[in-house]
Model the fold of this input.
Amino acid sequence: MEQIKEFEKRMDAALDHIAVHLKSSPQAGEKKDHAVAELDLLKAENTALKSELDALAEPKIANDNQEMVNRLSAEKADLAQRLEASEQARKEQAFEVQQLYEDLAKLLGRTDISENGEA
Done:
């Protein structure tokens, strides 16, 4: 956005410079009047384009921010689901490991097996 503003300043300065030289030109008559009128038209178009650019820049920033918020919210929801699924899988695996230790203890004839499987 800063580069755009800098370009706008340079464009305004260039148009002003042309206007000064054109208006101080010794030429008279219809050609000069036509050139001055065309320059004034270019200045008006330049001003209108700057206004359009400013108008387009504002909603885009808001839209980009909203899109980013929406994307991050979706990613957060996805990560929460994946975390919950991982936690559930961990609990199921822990239960299966406990069952395996208990089955092993029965097979070995022992009944007192600690969490890490040691007697």
Notes: The two ends are 71 Å apart (CA to CA). Helices lie at 2-23, 30-108. The chain has a mean pLDDT of 80. The longest helix spans residues 30-108.
